[in-house]
Design a protein that fits this description.
The chain contains seven helices and no strands. The protein has about 200 residues and is mainly alpha-helical. It has a domain of about 120 residues.
């Protein structure tokens, strides 16, 4: 980056002949300052979006593991912790840390999940905590609530994946049209020149 910046400044100085280089330098400095202020924020937002999507995917897998363990007649607490230990990656590490915090503070895992969802900005985790808490209060089976939430997460992931694929297909339409127009110009140029010359 430093090489590119020094080359750009050198080109500006060479283009102005060394005289009056203050205005282009001030303009380019202002442009680089604005770019340097906005670019990290844009890159960080993209990274946050990607990490949230990865966490949603891991949460869906985690809920499937919990359902399998609950079907094998494991207790709720045991199923939650064993499923968290089974996974790898930063999302499962966050879930494990959340369960550890709940155990140390003697809180419900669902309260900790709601707090983690608020901290990370993941609405699905907050909804999961609320639905399981409601199921526990009303005496419904937690397993059915977890299974429903896992199915809903998979449906949302599928819809997001299809929307991303459609957007990528739409973005590819313009380059294809431009390539076709370039091909027509490439083929038609010799014929056009021969007509004009005769």
């Amino acid at each position: 980056m430093k090489r590119i910046l020094s080359a750009a400044v050198g080109l500006l100085l060479a283009a102005s002949g060394g005289r009056g280089a203050v205005a282009p330098l001030a303009t380019s400095s202002l442009l680089f300052a604005v770019l340097g202020f906005l670019l990290p924020d844009l890159l960080l937002r993209e990274e946050v979006k990607r990490r949230r999507d990865a966490f949603r995917h891991a949460l869906s897998a985690y809920l499937d593991l919990v359902n399998v363990l609950l079907a094998g007649s494991a207790g709720t607490e045991t199923a939650l912790e064993a499923a968290a230990e089974a996974g790898d990656g930063w999302a499962f590490a966050e879930i494990r840390a959340c369960l550890d915090r709940a155990r140390v503070l003697r809180r419900s895992p669902w309260e900790s999940f709601a707090a983690l969802g608020t901290e990370l900005g993941i609405d699905e985790l907050i909804e999961l905590a609320a639905s399981v808490r409601l199921a526990g209060e009303q005496g419904a089976k937690i397993k059915s609530s977890l299974a429903a939430k896992a199915a809903a997460l998979r449906g949302h992931q599928l819809a997001r994946t299809e929307a991303a694929a459609q957007a990528a297909s739409d973005r590819m339409a313009l380059p294809n049209v431009l390539m076709f127009l370039g091909f027509i110009v490439f083929i038609g140029y010799p014929a056009f020149i021969s007509i004009v010359a005769s």
